[in-house]
Fold this protein.
Amino acid sequence: MTPVYVLRLDDPGATLDVAGGKGAALARMAAAGLPVPDGFHIATAAYRRFVAANGLHGLVSLALEGVDQERPRTLETVSEKIREGFAIATIPPDVALAIAQAYAELKGPEPVVAVRSSATAEDLPDLSFAGQQETYLNVAGIDAVLRAVKGCWASLWTARAIGYRARHNIDPEGLSLAVVVQRLVPAEVAGVLFTANPMNGRRDQALVNAAWGLGEAVVGGSVTPDCFIVTNETGQVVERTISDKRVMTVRVDGGTTERPVPDELRCTPSLTDGQLAELVALGARVEALYGEPRDIEWALADGVFAVVQARPITALPEPEAEPPTAWPMPDPKGQYLRGSIVDFMPDPLTPMFASMVVPAVVQGMHATARELLGGTSDLINGYLLTINDYAYMGMKLSARDVWWILTGMLPRMPRLLSDGVRHWNEEARPRYAEVVAKWSDATVDTTRARTLLTGVDELMGAMGRYLTTLQVDTLGVAAGSEMLFTRAYDKLVKREGDPPAPTYLLGADSLPIRAEKALFDLAQWCQSTSDLSQYLLSTPADQVIEDTMGQDRPAGLDTDAWRAWRDRFIAHLDQYGHSIYDLDFAKPIPADDPTPVLETLKLFVRGEGRDPHKRQRELVERREAAIKVALDRIRGFRRWIFKKTLGWAQTFTRVREDSIFDIGLGYPRLRRMLVALGRRMAEAGAIDAPDGIYWLTRDELDVVAKRLDSNEPLDDYQDVVAMRRAIWHAEKRVTPPPQLPGRERIMGVKTDIYVPVSEDEQTETTLKGIGASPGTVTAPACVLHGPDDFDQMRPGDILVADITTPAWTPLFAMASGVVTNIGGPLSHGSIVAREYGIPAVLGTGVATKRIQSGQVITVDGDAGQVLLGDDGDRGDE
């Protein structure tokens, strides 16, 4: 087949492989009737013919062997060798003839054109390659065109282009270059249009940069352009910055040059509002053609706009909204707190979770009150609510509520104290597990949508019932029993030099600790198989997970060992993978994304981190030694009260952690059901990806499920999802007040023991919080915003997070200290920190916003303070 060297501009055959990224984009726009200057493509086949005819492939391959990214000067040396070869090479006659014929077909004698490089690795979704290859403007005559074409081909091997491809791991083998030749637009004004705002990600805004003359001054950065932000829907200018435009690119014989802008134009707007509206409307047509935001180079001549390039906007951030500044209380006379179960919801709630968790918790509270307290109260109806999408507890008490507490709740507390463990173990957890089992066999891909939604409702209702039961059975009783023991010990037993009360609670064999020990044991087994351990340590976690969950055995591994690994790791996830990082079910759990679990396992395989079995034995020995010393010196009532309160505190401390661990018992199945529904919505075009379902509400999903089952078309929710994501990210940037309004006491109890410190109480150099585990440590901080960041943690770092739940426990094996925004002396973080013997300061409110990863800080668990050192990189980096 005769190779095709030249194609017309709108030729459907001008694909990425044939015409490069720039050329393929122009061909598509020209075919769609968009205002693209006339011209033609010089296909990649012409480049390959040029290279082959001149024997340049060997020169390129040999020269590239000298590239060393650690020595930038080698890039220049290699580039010079290659480009010297290109300079002395000649364009084959058949290629030159095809170019000359295409140029002659353009209207007019020796038309003035722009000759632009178009690489096959250019303008891809994640990499723009902007400015990597040459562009020649104001070219006239076939000889000048051929020289410019050869210059474009050679620019594939500039030092900058070679280095860029090397940094992004793009194989140079097989690279080729196309060239676009187009009539030059004699622009009076030119610039760049982003059809979405690249500064804040907003898809409803466009951003325009514009300056006088040809566009090279703007693209090349030699002039500060005017900047306009325009509303896409209306074309209204919402923000304008008019610059002092000192230079402009203009045409001269054989090329272009920069000239001073006339004084009267330097600070004059380069585009009128009407022109901006017209340009943004043109950009909307380009975006509609591609179905995604575009970075468009444009030119304006004689009042007519032309598009000269359009590429994807790389690294476009998620859309942003303005963060809230006010915190309106639903009841101006109410009292709202962030504490108790709200501790498990540190971030703004996603719409689906918020619309389900509030009724689930309220219904669960009513059911728990009737079951355990002999009746219910209107107080429960406002128990959980959201303000700016953050969860709050309502604490306003009426006279009737106080009467119910005095006559219904308090008289039953002694029985609840003695029966809580049994009730949780024999009734609350089995009841939750029964609902989970009911839906465990549902085939999510074939089950009707409304049936899946029924399962989601039942699982969420069961979780709400379980969570509210814990507040009576384990959470509240554990808090009360530990406070009671601490008070009794401090008043009746403790003498100067004696250990603090938490020492007597160390070494509990709770479910999070058992999960850590099981992971350690799995790592020990992996170490016994050298090939397996080498594979785990040398392979990225995401690849290990893909291999483990797939069917194929990685090359070089023993079949039996690999099968045993798969069975053991999957069994570990089946047993422990439901532990939550965050109560919001939009957040993945280890069963969905076991990367954090695997990273911790790798830590143990490398021999880092402490043996949890040994650590627990040492803690038990320390605890028992302390108990023996205390019992040897006390008698009578003091001895009895010490043993009694200690027994309660030890039992409930362990059971509390066990019960929290199982809050997410139904989440693996619930999330699979929601993702299955989300996948169906994405396939129907209603959302862009399955996880978009979390940004809908329960009522919206009900409509969706009905339409899915009846094969009716779905509404387009993509803009709704984008807007809600933007609002969520804006809300995430603020720190919610720990209580509204702020009070030192509620119902006679000081609030500073169970709510975070407010932002305005913190200083520049010290963060106040709650000293939850004693001791002092100075070390680099590692700020983790969720499980996706777990791989950043290094042994010896101070763990800084919003909150820690049982799923975070493996990280404590690496941490030298813990700091959180939320939590108190009886929260998970404090209990586990004491088990690990590391200092902890919780409830600082703003730690993740005020502390940077790598910053050296001091955690004083005795004083409840975090001292902030200078920002800086880790010393070993």
Q: What stands out?
A: The mean pLDDT is 87. The chain has four domains: 1-183, 185-317, 321-742, 756-868. The chain is about 45% helix and 15% strand. Residues 200 and 400 are 50 Å apart (CA to CA).
